[in-house]
Automatic annotation (TrEMBL):
GO CC annotation, single: membrane
Keyword Lipid metabolism carried by entry: yes
GO MF term list: oxidoreductase activity, acting on paired donors, with oxidation of a pair of donors resulting in the reduction of molecular oxygen to two molecules of water
The entry's keywords: Fatty acid biosynthesis, Fatty acid metabolism, Lipid biosynthesis, Lipid metabolism
Pfam families referenced in this protein's UniProt entry, alphabetically: FA_desaturase (PF00487)
Any GO BP: fatty acid biosynthetic process
Protein's name according to its UniProt entry: FADS1 desaturase
All residue ranges annotated as the Fatty acid desaturase domain in the record: 7-122
Native organism taxonomy: Eukaryota, Metazoa, Chordata, Craniata, Vertebrata
Gene (UniProt): Fads1_3
Organism per entry: Chloropsis hardwickii
Record's keyword annotation contains Membrane: no
InterPro entries attached to this UniProt entry: FA_desaturase_dom (IPR005804), Fatty_acid_desaturase (IPR012171)
């Protein structure tokens, strides 16, 4: 019962990491795969002498969980469909403009979203 709230935030980042490596391997993107592996090599090399493996894995999982939660907040706050009830046979650009919105500008929104709160201009 206590594990359930943690599963969705942890499973999606774990699956995403696995899938990213899987695609790079199956499509033979060897340079990209090497760069992705260097992150983990550098991470474990840097912190491996300070922390045990279980703690390092927990740290990576926590990082991925926070990162995915942030990504969902940032991407969904300005991709809320505005006026798309049915196909109005509009061109792609018009449909995209109707399906996104800008979010109020503030110091916090600008910082938190990396200026992606200006989604239409983005």
């Amino acid at each position: 019962e206590f594990v359930f709230p943690a599963l969705p935030p942890l499973l999606f980042p774990t699956f995403f990491q696995y899938h990213t490596f899987y695609v790079a391997y199956t499509k033979k993107y060897w340079v990209d795969l090497a760069w992705m592996l260097t992150f983990y090599i550098r991470f474990f090399y840097t912190y491996g002498s300070l922390l045990e493996t279980k703690t390092l894995n927990s740290l990576i999982s926590l990082h991925r969980m926070l990162e995915s939660t942030w990504f969902v907040w940032v991407s969904q706050m300005n991709h809320i469909p505005m006026d798309i009830d049915y196909d109005k046979n509009l061109d792609w650009m018009s449909t995209q403009l109707q399906a996104t919105c800008n979010v109020e500008q503030s110091l916090f929104n600008d910082w938190f979203t990396g200026h992606l709160n200006f989604q239409i201009e983005h």
